[in-house]
Amino acid sequence: EVLTEDPEMAFCTLANREDLNPEEGSIYHCLYQFTCNEKLSENNKLLCDVCTQRHCGPKNIKSEKKYVYTNAEKQMLISLAPPVLTLHLKRFQQAGFNLRKVNRHIKFPEVLDLAPFCTVKCKNVAEGNTKVLYSLYGVVEHSGTMRSGHYTAYAKMRSMNKHLSDLVLQGQSPQALETEPVKGQWFHISDTHVQAVSVSKVLSSQAYLLFYERVL
């Protein structure tokens, strides 16, 4: 379904992206790059039905139409903030004909604000809110190479998130402002071995998958 939006609002976000100034090598920088405004021109021009109809007239049969392509702008933004946010980091790069594992540490926070990447008309955000906050509760880490390796996980044992329950079961977006991470104890799980760890240990891991639960 194609919806016609107000051009002045089409690329607006809940929070100002330009104030973000994300640190390179951080999850914020990854999200910023993923949601950047793209210019579509030359070979990437957009086929415009309105321009084609205006140029050829509505009565022309399809075989006679000369399709009109036009310059355009494209941006990927979040229109519905999920109860659980899963971020999958690309941990490989092309090196000639081979794939190479990327072992660089990507900095990620305990509390993530998704507002700079959400459309200003995000469906399940309370009116007036300029923050969409998520608390980290799980990390998957991969050690090894592209050919072999081992997966381990960090998980937080915590109390029930009432905001999350309301959002999943009743569709109600959180109203109360919670800027602190959900309290709980972190554990490192490797096969059958489970060990309690500090949050600093979790945040220093080379994350492959990140799991956040919504708190606002």
From TrEMBL:
**Domain USP span(s) in chain numbering:** 1-215
Q: Which GO terms describe its cellular component?
A: cytosol; nucleus
Supply the InterPro entries for this chain: Papain-like_cys_pep_sf (IPR038765), Peptidase_C19 (IPR050164), Peptidase_C19_UCH (IPR001394), USP (IPR028889), USP_CS (IPR018200)
Which Gene Ontology molecular function entries are recorded, alphabetically? cysteine-type deubiquitinase activity
Q: Please provide the record's keywords in A-Z order.
A: Hydrolase
One Pfam entry for this protein is UCH
GO BP terms: namely: protein deubiquitination
Q: What is this protein called?
A: UBP16 hydrolase
